[in-house]
Amino acid sequence: MNRSPRLLPAYTHRLSNGLGVILHPIPIADSVTVDVWVRTGGRHEPPEWLGLSHFLEHMVFKGSERLAPGELDRAVEGRGGVTNAATGQDYTHYYITVAAADLADTLPYLAEVVLRAGIPDSEFERERQVVLEEIRRAADNPDYTVYQLLMQTAYGEHPYGRPVLGTPESLMQLTPELMRAYHRAWYRPEFMTVVVTGGIDPEQALALVEEQFGGPALGPAPVILPIPPQPRPRGILRRESDHDRLEQARLKLAWPTVGMDDWQQACGLEMLASVLGDGRTSRLVHLLREQRGWVRAIGCSSLVLKEGGLFCIGAQLEPEDVARVEATILHEIEKLQQDGIGQAELDRTRRMLIHEFLFSAESPSQLAGIYGYYETLGGVQRIQEYLELLQSFTPAQIRELAQQYLSPEAYVVTVLKPTALDTAVASELQLACR
Amino acid sequence: MNSALLATQRGRLRRVLLANGITLLLGQNPTVEILAAHCFFRGGSRAERPQQAGVSHLMAAVLTKGTHRRNSQAIAAGVESLGAALSVDSSADSFEVSLRCVSADFPELLDLLAEILRDPSFPEEEVAREQALMLQAIRTQQERPFSLAFNQVQQALYGDHPYALPGLGRLETVGSLTREDLVAYHAAYCRPNGMVMVVIGPEPPEQMAAQVEAALGDWDVPGPSPEDRDVPLPPLRDPQLLRLPQPTQQTTILIGFRGSPAASGDYPALKLLATYLGSGLSSRLFVELRERCGLAYEVSAFFATRRDPAPFGVYMGTAAENTQVALERLQAEIHRLQANPLDAAEVEMAQRKLLGQYALSKQTNAQVAQLAGWYEILGLGMEFDQQYLQGVRQLTPEQLHQAAKTYLAHPAIALVGPEAALAEVKPMF
């Protein structure tokens, strides 16, 4: 397919209280997803509140003055639906998916707990134990450990360098009073978007959303802390650590890039990531996995957050291969910077990205997630811009992006190795210049 | 056409039998350009001889790495230049080749798919590379506490039956496999007679059927099929506690049982029990162990859909110092199901949840194709989709109670966690 597909929400609307509403009927769907997005997450936490947004996301399911803990879950799941939530650095979102006929009966539960979370003291202590278990579980997962190590090394003191889950120490400092104040300040209509997709009549759905989410904010607006600029390494910033139960090493290389506001560059970087690491014919997978067998897996991604992104290359491999794989990756980047990419390579990438996007937007819940995410990070028009920009990039532009962002002299590298093989002191931090 | 009709039409597949024994299931969904095609073959781990454990998996990994006309990169380029995805997966009772693409590209990709199925070359160097990477994959399974626990439980429940092993096989068996083993496995199991292919896309079923017939209709049956043997199960053993010390922060607790085959009349009851115990935020285990006790973040239950008696399990991760109390609570939940029937209201809630969430698990063409093909290759027929739901609707508290007493009586419990925490644990047997 060589035309760009269209993916725009059928209806966008702003309520008089400032809340954004996106409605998208899907003819075949007999289910409906409501996805409520709030523009706060780890990014807005001062260091002493680390983990507050995510902990709040747990506490929302503990009900309100009118709803007992778990009542939302029973209302939705008892009708055969599903509900859950997630917290990132830039957002928190809550969703339900139910049969179309159950929308009017279930939406009030979701609105009640999200807008008027009670955060009862007794539940707070108990749920803190659950979040501590979530942190322990993450610590037992080497892929989480190496991801966190990379973010910490790449972002330093910037909020994106800290774990959204918080730490056991930070969680113990949080109180129900603090959480209630944070909730009142941030869960306000002008910071929220409600997305409804699936088997809906748009007018009826809008009326329902207005009825449930149309009220005023419950407290004063928050003080928004200034976010420091994203750090940029001046040399090679290397951090190695070990993990007790690792069978293979993890290698991650990263370069600071752009935030959501520089969307054109961000879309080009997405194409560059695909050229390097998406599919068996991509450069790094072809060379390092398919030809040489030096890595069990290798991938490349352009992470674009609101306040600055990272271009990441990650591999899983035998510890003794780390050095030559890192050198080969850099060599491949230099080759791309010198020789550029071909038109066929660009066409392949374009088609893969467009089709992957289509495949990822098939069901109502997938679509609601996409609309909510983009609306929260920069505006829902970003989706259509993305699909159109993919068509417009030339091989020369992709090469320029590689030259501009992927310096072989300045990047971040983190390595996680099995304990027995690590001779240096754990978590050794060194800064070297070539 | 209204939306309800469209949804029904996608779910209502048409069955076509080709002369060479391929069963085609076709569904039309005109609302998206996306096409999903899934091919299923009998085989999988269940068909492996013990000394060849992992052969199905390795064959799947090398299948797309060369035909007699194209090398690995040419195949990958054929797929990726069209922005499609082609994958091969091996599971307990079957293996599956699946394709996802934009409908207009289907004829071209179907030719490639047919070439891969019928004429793979299993190049020596590709076999060697995938074998080396699979040995690494077997080792890295150990990084996940859940895998360690599940592997122990499977061993304990299944003895010499192939379900005892993880699908990847063991280091010794995979290390000894050769190209000839893959060629022989492919010749025996990747064959038209008995193959099931499900295609769901925007075009009329007749058109998709004609396309498949053109690509695969002249695939001749290559001699007699391998014997479809019964695989004996060891007798059920007394309750067992398996301790596997690991320097983790949490202890992973997994209590496993041998459930029923999918074809058994007890299958819906065990599915409903797994839903009741572990599905979602309102499930029994979630509410009791997480919401009321704060003992876990992840706590859940599972029951697989298999040809032979499938594993049923409940599991959780908890802080090392809570190992004993968490194990007691988790065991108490199983004992409760055996002691008395559930309230009618609890059963009705679980039924509504299962029926609704089952419908929600069929939202994409690929999901519909996957499930229908799975039922068909297990010999249940795609009609099982509705028979199963009917079975769930009719279940009573007494039937669930009976199923719990029958199937949840011989636990194998695995604990993976810090040595000191495991040493003190006493199970309630």
Write the layout of secondary structure elements.
The complex is a heterodimer of chains A (434) and B (429).
Chain A: E1 11-14, E2 20-25, E3 31-38, H1 52-60, H2 71-77, E4 82-87, E5 92-99, H3 103-115, H4 121-139, H5 142-155, H6 168-173, H7 176-186, E6 192-198, H8 202-213, E7 236-243, E8 249-256, H9 263-277, H10 283-291, E9 295-305, E10 308-317, H11 322-339, H12 343-359, H13 364-377, H14 381-392, H15 395-405, E11 411-418, E12 428-432
Helix pairs in contact in A: 2-3, 3-8, 9-14, 9-15, 11-15
Chain B: H1 3-11, E1 14-17, E2 23-28, E3 34-42, H2 55-63, H3 72-80, E4 85-90, E5 94-102, H4 106-118, H5 124-140, H6 145-158, H7 171-176, H8 179-189, E6 196-201, H9 205-216, E7 240-245, E8 250-258, H10 267-278, H11 284-292, E9 299-303, E10 311-319, H12 323-339, H13 344-360, H14 365-377, H15 384-394, H16 397-407, E11 412-417, H17 419-423
Parallel strand pairs in B: 2-6, 7-11
Antiparallel strand pairs in B: 1-2, 3-5, 3-6, 4-5, 8-10, 8-11, 9-10
Entry summary:
Chain A has 434 residues and is an alpha+beta fold.
- The CATH superfamily label of the largest domain in chain B reads Metalloenzyme, LuxS/M16 peptidase-like
Main sheet makeup of chain A: 6 strands, mixed
Total number of helices of chain A: 15
Tell me the quaternary state.
heterodimer
CATH class of the largest domain in chain A: Alpha Beta
In the CATH hierarchy, the architecture of the largest domain in chain B is 2-Layer Sandwich
Mean pLDDT of chain A: 93
Tell me the CATH topology of the largest domain in chain A. Answer: Cytochrome Bc1 Complex, Chain A, domain 1
The proportion of residues forming helix of chain A, as a percent range, comes to 40-55%
* Proportion in β-strands of chain B: 15-25%
Uncertain stretches of chain A: 421-434
Order of strands, main sheet of chain B, comes to: 1-2-6-3-5-4
> Could you say which structural class the secondary elements and strand pairing of chain A correspond to?
alpha+beta
Please bin the fraction of helical residues of chain B: 40-55%
Count of domain modules of chain B? 2
| Major sheet description of chain B | 6 strands, mixed
CATH uppermost class of the largest domain in chain B: Alpha Beta
Poorly predicted tracts of residues of chain B: 1-8
E-strand count of chain A: 12
